[in-house]
Design goal:
single chain; 61 residues; mainly alpha; 434 Repressor (Amino-terminal Domain); 4 helices; globular
Length: 61
């Protein structure tokens, strides 16, 4: 098992905190951002490296 990138892990943790502060589930955020729930999950776990366009989609969501 490979180690998670610390930058991706920190971004994912921040995303999760923001989402939870807004009382959104991963499914709700995914719908608002027009992304898949499993993609959101991967970002939050520090396993996915979202491109800038998807970061913007998350921010708008």
């Amino acid at each position: 098992m490979s180690k998670r990138d610390p930058t991706l892990a920190a971004f994912g943790m921040s995303l999760r905190r923001w989402r939870e502060a807004k009382n959104l589930t991963q499914e709700q955020l995914a719908e608002k951002a027009d992304l898949d729930q499993t993609y959101i999950s991967g970002i939050e776990r520090g396993l996915r490296n979202p491109g800038i366009k998807n970061v913007v989609r998350l921010a708008r969501g």
